[in-house]
Amino acid sequence: MGSEFVRARGRGWRTVTGPTDHVVVVGAGVSGLSAALHLLGAGRSVTVVERDGHPGGRAGRDDADGFLMDTGPTVLTMPDLIEEALSAVGDSLGRRLDLVRLDPAYRARFADGTSIDVHTDPEAMAAEIGAKVGARDARGYLRLRDWLSRLYRVQMRAFIDANHDSPLRLLTPELARLAALGGFGRLGPAVERYVADERLRRIFTFQALYAGVTPQRALAAYAVIAYMDTVAGVYFPKGGMRALGDALADAVVDAGGDLRYGQDVRALERRGDRITAVRTADGSRLACDAVVLTPDLPMAYRLLGRTPWRPAPLRFSPSAVVLHAGVDRAWAGTHHHTLSFGAEWERTFDQICDAERP
Ligand SMILES: Cc1cc2nc3c(=O)[nH]c(=O)nc-3n(C[C@H](O)[C@H](O)[C@H](O)COP(=O)(O)OP(=O)(O)OC[C@H]3O[C@@H](n4cnc5c(N)ncnc54)[C@H](O)[C@@H]3O)c2cc1C
Questions:
Q1: How high is the pLDDT of residue 243?
Q2: Distance 6 CA to ligand 1 centre (A)
Q3: Is any ligand 1 atom within 6 A of the Cβ of residue 59?
Q4: Mean pLDDT of successive 10-residue stretches along the chain, which has 358 residues
Q5: β 45-49/61-64 pair status
Q6: 3-state SS assignment for residue 128
Q7: Which one, of 352, 319, 345, lies nearest residue 202 by Cα?
Q8: Taking the CA of residue 315 as centre, how many other CA atoms within 13 Å lie in the half-sphere pointing to its CB?
Q9: Domain edges within the chain
Q10: Residues forming beta bridges with residue 47, ordered by sequence position
């Protein structure tokens, strides 16, 4: 097999010199399973090793008293990325998953007792804003949507769906386009230019917290996350989010991948700058030509035995306490996904992100 290893969706090759016939993927979360499918599609022999007893990783599961709970994400955005991974092995999303498009994508409830439903359909959302806020912000929303869509297109092509083997790869015409779109300004003020209502500003900026930054300080480029769940569409797989991990894992096995659960990777063997084998806690040794690591960075660096130098140290984003409850009834006023915003806003972010206080 040649030296070219994995192609990032049509652009930019991540090149690993030497043989790449057998690849071991560590982790059967969404990224490990997607990588395995792309590698299988590219003709590699693939072994996936996962320490848990099931696929999905952080798209997790917990079953108690007959309730099947999703412990990670409760909705799916960007299903085309899943389709792409499945189609790499000639499989398809339609065959593996039954997706329900959620409308509204979510319901936002506010401390003053009001609520706004977030629709990803432009007319429906403009009508909701027209009815709950006013005509001016409804028009502003349509312009905001257009800006989010343009930001997304530029960022996806040049920065998200691209390799970053060299910082020079970032120097593309898209960088100038992103700057021209205001991507390097601040998210809060950027969104304020389109919608004046405080509730709408929250709806279109709170997503910065996913990346551990406050909306006031986040780069406007983070608005791409708002694009994903307010424009592109929000879905729920029938059977729960666990159906996603199961679908990808089944596709890996059907495409000839070797998927092993209960395998905790403890060490990597190397020869020169190549990883030649993966060692697990039970003493197994899996020889390989290349390895894909999908655990968190600290674990990946530990396995690699080195932490690359960075100009600024990495900070963990804030954690959260999540309560899961199995219930046998529904409540009026809640939707599949209901976000309750408190009265506080900036002060809360300052406390969580800067003061690091719960
Ligand atoms: C409560 C919650 C809500 C979320 N909501 C959303 C959302 O709405 N939208 C969204 O996009 N994202 C959301 N996320 C984030 C999303 O779940 C993760 O970004 C995604 O699942 C990460 O996938 P991954 O494959 O990169 O990593 P992981 O899912 O962490 O997978 C890594 C895998 O590697 C395995 N592993 C680690 N170390 C080893 C080892 N040494 N040996 C063998 N196996 C190992 C782990 O067991 C795990 O299965 C949410 C996460 C949580 C927890």
A1: 97
A2: 22
A3: yes
A4: 36 64 97 97 97 96 92 93 97 97 95 96 97 98 95 83 73 82 86 96 90 84 88 94 97 98 97 93 96 94 89 82 90 88 89 83
A5: unpaired
A6: helix
A7: 345
A8: 9
A9: 4-100+237-304, 110-226
A10: 24, 258
Task: Report the separation in Å between the CA atom of 171 and the middle of ligand 1, taken as the mean of its atom positions.
Answer: 30
Instruction: Please state the atom number of ligand 1 nearest to the C-alpha of residue 31.
Output: 25
Q: Which atom of ligand 1 is nearest to the CA of 320?
A: 1
In 3-state terms, what secondary structure has residue 335? Answer: coil
57 CB less than 6 Å from ligand 1? yes
If you classify domain 4-100+237-304 with CATH, what class do you get?
A: alpha beta
The secondary structure of 29-70 as a DSSP string is BHHHHHHHHHHHHTT-EEEEE-SSSSSBTTS-EEEETTEEEE
Which pairing describes strands 106-109 and 338-340: parallel, antiparallel, or unpaired?
parallel
Mutate which of 24, 69, 209, 294 for ligand 1 pocket (most atoms within 8 A of beta carbon) = 294
Helices (H), the chain: 30-41, 79-87, 93-96, 122-132, 135-155, 173-180, 187-192, 198-203, 223-227, 242-254, 297-304, 346-349
C-beta 304 within 6 A of ligand 1: no
Q: Is the CB of 64 under 6 A from ligand 1?
A: no
- Contact assessment for residue 207 and residue 69, using Cβ atoms and an 8 Å cutoff: no
Alpha helices by DSSP H, listed for 133-214, are 135-155, 173-180, 187-192, 198-203
